[in-house]
Amino acid sequence: PNPAIDNTPAAGASQALVGPVAGICGPFTDRAARVAAAEAAPADALRQAEAAAADVMARDLESARTRVARALTLDPAQPLGLYLRARLALLARDARGASADVDVLLAQGRDGPSLRQLERDVALALDDAPRALRALEAARDLDPTQAEVHWALAQAYREARRLDDRLRALEAVVQLEQHHREANVGRVQPTF
What we know:
- With 192 residues, this protein is mainly alpha-helical.
- The chain has twelve helices and no strands.
- Helix 6 packs parallel to helix 8 and helix 10 packs antiparallel against helix 11.
- The longest helix is centred in the middle third of the chain and has 14 residues, at 61-74.
- It is elongated and about 55 Å long.
- Mean pLDDT is 84; it is low at 1-15.
């Protein structure tokens, strides 16, 4: 199993993918080493998935797609490969494909803030606001120290017209980031 998908908190068009991947995988800045490791172990699904993550960090999405496909051919349940394929699918506007991969990861018992934030992104792409809200609440419960999750919850609660929950989420943001301008303003002017 990849512990980054299980429990590690998260840290142009490809930037929407790079940030979340860096959050669960680390920087993978030594792409050459990751690619060399994958080439030295062509039957190792994890090495292929790690090289794909390095490709994403280098913004080489075509190579990433190829390596993810290779990793999942070797091991269809490879968690990092599934996560990357879901992120790539979402980037390609294939929310249903991304949703299927997220569902597989959750069914495997994988969980973590990054996965739940991906689930939220997928749910929003599918216009499933209730699932998006549940995913954010799960992300918050898994790691309550992530201000961006509380901020996203505040926005979701605003849309759901849940003022008390919105105010609690804004309070959490301010506790974590005292100078978050929008959260401070939202606490003073709690309107929908």
